[in-house]
Design brief:
304 residues; mainly beta; Immunoglobulin-like; six-stranded antiparallel beta sheet; five-stranded antiparallel beta sheet; 4 helices; 9% helix
Amino acid sequence: MPNGGNGVYLFQWQKRITGNWVNIGGANSQNLNLGILYETTQYKRLVTSGGFTNTSNSVTITVVISEISNNTIQYHGSYDNQLIGSIPTGGNGSYEYQYLFVIDNILLGWSKQTIALLKSERLIAPPRPESYRFSTPWSTNKDYFDLLSNGTLSYAYERGIPIKVYRRVRSGTEVSISFSNQVIITPWYRTSNNLEDVLENGIPFSRLEDISETQITNIISIKLYPNPTSKLINFDIGINKFAKVRIMLFSIDLSVNDIVFDNYIDSKKVIKYHIPNHYRAGLYKYKVFVDNEELKNGTLILKR
C-alpha cells in the first residue's frame, strides 16, 4: 500500500508485451490478478493521489511454453480414408493442426491428345514426373476425414501412387510447433509395365503389383538440450533422407539474429553450438528448417 498524497489512492495497472505500455481495462485495484499467462509480459502500476502520480518499478513475468509431445497420426484404410491424430500434450494446452501431403513422381496436366502425340513420336519413356505438395489450413480438428476431396490426391490414390502425409501441431502465442511421424499411404493397385498404362495413368515403370496398404516411418526428430543453458546448446537432428537443414537463433528484440547451421545431412546428427560471449542472459527463439520448410521452433533460456 502506498503512502503520501491525500491518503486516497487511484490505481491503474499497465502491461507491455512488445512496444508501448498500455492500460489494462478494469485493473484499478491495489493488486492485480494475472490469471493464466501464455506469453512473456511486463507489468507496472500507476498510483494517483492529491494531484500527484507515481509509477512503480516494472516486473517481467517470463512464460516458457513446454515442448509439444504425443503427436502421431494413423491412416484408417482404403474404405473410410481417414487420418486419425492423437491428442498432443505440452504447449499451453490449446492446439491447432495442419495436415501436409507430398506426392512424388506424379504426371500432372497431360491431356490424351498430348499422350497420343508422344506415342506417335515413338517415345519409350513417360514425361518427366512432378512433385506435388498440398497443405490444409490450420484448424482445431485433430483428424483429417476427407482424403479424396482434393483432386490431385484422389488422382494419385486411384492410380496407386504413394501419398506421404504428416501433421504439424502448434500451441501458444510464443508458438511451439511439433512434427508428427510420417504415414505413407500406398493403395493396393494392379498394373502392367505397359507404356500406355504409364502415360495415361501416371504409373511409373517400377510400380509393384501388390503393395501393403500403409507403412509408417518416423522421418524426423528434433531435440534441443540442455535448456536452460549457459555456454553450449545441442541440436539433435534425426532424419532418414538427404536434406538441407538450417537452424536460426535470435533474441526477442532481434539484436541477435544468427544462422547456427546451414548444410546438408542424411542421417542422425548432433549439431553443437557454442554460444558467443556477447549473448546476454535472457530468452532467445530458435527455428529449424528442413528443405526450406520450418518444422520446429521454440524458446531457449540463456543463463550467464
